């Protein structure tokens, strides 16, 4: 059975009091699609334990279904600490979004190392929306950045500006990925868009989470 590691944020509030956390919809939609296809899932976060979420994000029907699922809820409230994870046990790692991800996930060296090891072991690396931040500091064995020269997408600068958070985030994700050598592309705001470049699968925004999951399942079925 294939096994996927979801890498979530532990960040909730910045020094100015701005609340962000994890965008659970980007966890719930891929979770249910992967489970439906017989794929096992574990959760990890920089601090381990419960993942922070804005109250507003809990109102979606799919999110409510996610928290009604006993296994899903337990895993989300009791994420593994990175030191408890062995990369060799996973066929893929997935970084969901939520603005919290830009604050802590890329700066967790253990999570970056796990992602690198999964990729170097012929595994998949996936991200949606702000989860793309998790790719920023993943380095391969040759010292190069994973995203360098890779085609990918993530939450666009225009989308950030459209929701008025461009002045709140510590950096613009599109710009940061390009600075690391990524070949970035996107569609118009809020459109479904997924880029597959070998074993790297990325989605632009929340509208892209299911398509990303479908591409991941397709890739894992080829492997097994």
TrEMBL record:
The entry's keywords: Glutamine amidotransferase, Lyase, Stress response, Transferase
GO BP, sorted A to Z: methylglyoxal catabolic process to D-lactate via S-lactoyl-glutathione
Keyword ATP-binding: no
GO-annotated cellular components: cytoplasm
InterPro entries: Class_I_gatase-like, DJ-1/PfpI, Prot/Nucl_acid_deglycase
Record carries keyword Lyase: yes
Annotated GO MF terms: glyoxalase III activity; transferase activity
Cited Pfam families: DJ-1_PfpI (PF01965)
Domain DJ-1/PfpI: 25-218
Family in the record: Belongs to the peptidase C56 family. HSP31-like subfamily.
The protein's name in its UniProt record: Type 1 glutamine amidotransferase domain-containing protein
């Amino acid at each position: 059975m294939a096994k996927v590691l979801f890498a979530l944020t532990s960040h909730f509030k910045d020094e100015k009091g701005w609340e962000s956390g994890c965008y659970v919809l980007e966890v719930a939609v891929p979770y249910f699609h992967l489970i439906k296809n017989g794929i096992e899932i574990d959760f990890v976060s920089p601090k381990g334990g419960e993942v922070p979420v804005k109250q507003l994000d809990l109102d979606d029907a799919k999110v409510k279904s996610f928290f009604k699922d006993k296994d899903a809820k337990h895993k989300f409230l009791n994420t593994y600490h990175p030191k408890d994870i062995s990369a060799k046990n996973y066929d893929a790692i997935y970084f969901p979004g939520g603005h919290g991800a830009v604050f802590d996930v890329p700066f967790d060296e253990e999570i970056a190392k796990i992602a690198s090891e999964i990729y170097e072991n012929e595994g998949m690396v996936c991200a949606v929306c702000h989860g793309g931040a998790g790719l920023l500091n993943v380095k391969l064995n040759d010292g190069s950045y994973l995203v360098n020269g890779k085609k990918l997408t993530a939450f666009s600068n225009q989308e950030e500006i459209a929701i008025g958070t461009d002045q709140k985030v510590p950096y613009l994700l599109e710009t940061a990925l390009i600075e690391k050598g990524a070949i970035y592309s996107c569609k118009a705001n809020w459109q479904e868009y997924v880029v597959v470049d070998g074993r790297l699968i990325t989605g632009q925004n929340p509208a892209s989470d299911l398509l990303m999951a479908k591409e991941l399942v397709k890739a894992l079925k080829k492997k097994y």
